[in-house]
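FORM 7B: Structural annotation worksheet

SECTION A. Query
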Amino acid sequence: MRGGDWNWISQYQHEDFIEFTSLYFDIMTALVPDKSELMIIKLKKAWSQFKTREKNKTKKQVSFYLPIKTKEQLEEICKATEVPRDKFLQLLIENEHKKFKSKMQEGS
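SECTION B. Predicted structure
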């Protein structure tokens, strides 16, 4: 569902809407079981995708190449420290950024 559709649905979540939606799926299941099953699967996937996107709104996907040895080193560190790769890289970058800012202020 797109943003506008979702806003409309969220405004009209009263008993009638829920009852009509339930009735629709009951009729679809009785008349066209394969189509209703496919629709339910698609709805579940869409809801899962929506939740994932909402959870990751403050994050940005990054894709880059690392030398094989560097990737192995990263995996080794993350496994030993039980810190996920994304969190480890975030902490590493934040620490290096602090050092960088300190050096820049010293030079001023």
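SECTION C. Observations
The radius of gyration is 24 Å. Residues 68-107 form one domain.

SECTION D. Sign-off
Analyst initials: ____
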